Amino acid sequence: MAYENFARKYRPKTFKEVVGQEPVVKTLSNAIKLDRLSHAYIFAGSRGLGKTTIARIITKCLNCEKGITDQPCGKCENCLEIEKGSFPDMYEIDAASNRGIDDIRALRDNVSYAPIKGRYKVYIIDEAHMLTREAFNALLKTLEEPPPNNLFILATTELHKIPDTIRSRCQTFIFRPPTKSQIKEYLKRILETEKIPYEEEALELIAEASNGGVRDAASLLDQAVIYGGGQVKKKETEQMLGVVPEGILKDFLSHLKEKNLKEMVKTIERLDREGYDLTVFWEQVLERLHDSLVNLTVGEGEHEPFEKEDTELLIYATDIFKKAFIEAKDFNDRKDIFQLAVLKLRFMKDLVPLKEILKKGIPVKTESGEKTTQKEEKFDLQKAILKIGKEAGGIISGTLKKSSIREEENRFVIIVDKNLADILKDKLDIIEKHFPKPVQIEEIEIKQERKKPKKKDEAVEKVLELFQGKIISYEEE
Ligand SMILES: Nc1ncnc2c1ncn2[C@@H]1O[C@H](COP(=O)(O)OP(=O)(O)OP(=O)(O)O)[C@@H](O)[C@H]1O
Ligand SMILES: [Mg+2]
Ligand SMILES: [Zn+2]
Q: How far is CA 413 from each of CA 134, 378, 428, 444, rounded to the nearest angstrom?
């Protein structure tokens, strides 16, 4: 017998076997039982969550020889044909390759005929968002006055591309990814039926890597069984997925906690050298940071090695690392981007607001070891800015006041919002004249006070209070 992959072999034949999608399954099976099925549905959601699968189950429910039921027999000729995809009253239309008005007109003509073999004709329009405007208009007419005994199911991964006119005539179901533990259970069920030995942790890794896609989880399991030579073990699965071993990941997080940036940079270097996919590693790191943050907040679950006092660090690092992740998608040199992201963490503690410096003044350190007759004196930054302003203009002194400043051994670094950097760079010679050491301009993205959320979010307030935290950024909706 030809080898059948797990996704195919274990495609649910009944509502009961569907993983997740509880609201969809419940509503549909009730509708069938109560004879209240709508004539048109939209199934929206990402790939491999069961849209086509559920559409076929409904077709069986309506056409099983046993009668209309939410538990089709799966054995009669109709059920079997539907499963095979050869049932004459089930039309699976790929809108990606039949997107034109003629295709929909043909469908419209068909709608007026009685079913050939079953009770209902079911049209499953896959990738429905690909239809042309004219095709949608033609479809609209059919949806407006549907002849009886026809059911339309529009499946799409991009709901926002379905016109409102169509949407308002359909009942929409959003398919959501099942939880990690649901996917784990699903994988376990397959392996136990197949009598394939496995380690729990390996399933955890696969569930994690599948990002909620059931089809993806099943095909990763296929691969893992082959890679592991007939069993699914943690170590082999790690290798197969390109996942960084737990020990290295844990060390990396401990270095983060200790703000040992050097070791973090070195780890990235090493993983790159050893051929690991750094994107996968970065995803693992982000996942851990996120989980730690959530678990610390709700007060349960794994958050090693972080403690409550690390909350600010976690928020800050997650924010920076996430941006790096997005950035790295468009570049080849991921290593550089991730290392830079790590280095950016130093700003967290080193950044001293200029206001404070203005209050205290920056002492000019004497070079160590070098004897100097010059008396240690204070560099008066405020005065310097005043002079710079007189010479270069108010915009320059204003910008300096908005910047932060760091003194290093043989230079000053002015850290400025990247939108303002050019203003300073243009007048660098004037600025430098008034500083006791060379000046370097460093650009960063300074978060402006963003639009605050309209209402206070109670949960957020509670978290802030609990950790005595502050909000660093808001995600735009
Ligand atoms: N919710 C689920 N429960 C169990 N198995 C599932 C589920 N979703 C998907 N699968 C598995 O993945 C395979 C593909 O599922 P299906 O074709 O229904 O996905 P889809 O949502 O239509 O995806 P696409 O958008 O790519 O068409 C099925 O054969 C099945 O084995
Ligand atoms: Mg599909
Ligand atoms: Zn049947």
A: 60, 17, 12, 12
